[in-house]
Amino acid sequence: MNLRCAVLDDFQGVATTSADWSPVLDRVEVVSFPEHFASEDQLADALADFDIVVTLRERVPFPASLLDRLDRLKLLVASGMRNSVIDFAAAERNGVTVCGTKSSSTPPVELTWALLLGLARGLVTETNALRTDGPWQSTVGADLHGRRLGLLGLGKIGSRVAQVGLAFGMDVVAWSQNLTEARAKECGVTLASTKEELLSTSDFVSVHLALSERTRGLLGPAELALLKPTAYLVNTSRAAIVDQDALLAALCEARIAGAGVDVFDIEPLPSGHPMRSAPRLLATPHLGYVSESNYRTYYGHAVEDIEAFLAGSPVRRLG
After folding, report:
1. 296 is known as an active-site residue
2. Catalytic annotation on 57?
3. Once rounded to an integer, what is the mean pLDDT over residues 274-283?
4. Which of 267, 273, 280, 296 is catalytic?
5. Which residues have C-beta within 8 Å of that of residue 182, sequence separation ≥ 6?
6. Is 255 a catalytic residue?
């Protein structure tokens, strides 16, 4: 009997066409799920008859309570090489091998600039007006040249966002708990003396930090209150770094000019969620990693992970 492999959150229906699955199809039946399972019970029922699961990023948690219910599961493949929502101890206890895939930092860099530019030039407002016979020019764009871009985080993604900002002629500053002056200088940017200085002096603030206990809630009501009324905030990193209620309040009360957000506390966003209708918000449904090249990598490496597992020599193990 063939093993069964479930591919979760295949919203675009491209999981089986983004890579060549033929090396494993003689031994593995692949079933993709275009719908998201919102509850653990739904997920446990859907995955009860599967031996292998491929999951995208960190949208679907695999806590001990779920892993303990999946008696057939033997291999869990997660895109990327870091995952904070899998209980690795429970996976090991249940005999589940966890493997990852490579992931490119280029797509989130590009989406960051799509959001920032869209905000600065009022693209959604102007496009909607143009298509609905609305006013001809109703916004005045915010210039980038000569303005300050504040980066929270200067790692693989933040440093590349910095390069684009410098190319636009922006004054780029950066801050994180461990950022050194040498690293900032290496990237051609200025090290902000404090997080508060960065927030209060920047015209655009973009978040590029990994989620940890130190960064969870890093931007709360007090921090958001430091932003200029004309400032824009972009978050393509992790929702929990920015207090969502505080951000909504700042947008609704026009205390900042706008925000570009690709990540949310709940994904997918439920119907009627306030983030779906907040003013001054340019929001995208977690598209940061969603690109042709990344999908080729994710699913191509998933096939390699399955092949290696079946051969008894798992690769790219996580945990």
Report:
1. no
2. no
3. 97
4. 267
5. none
6. no
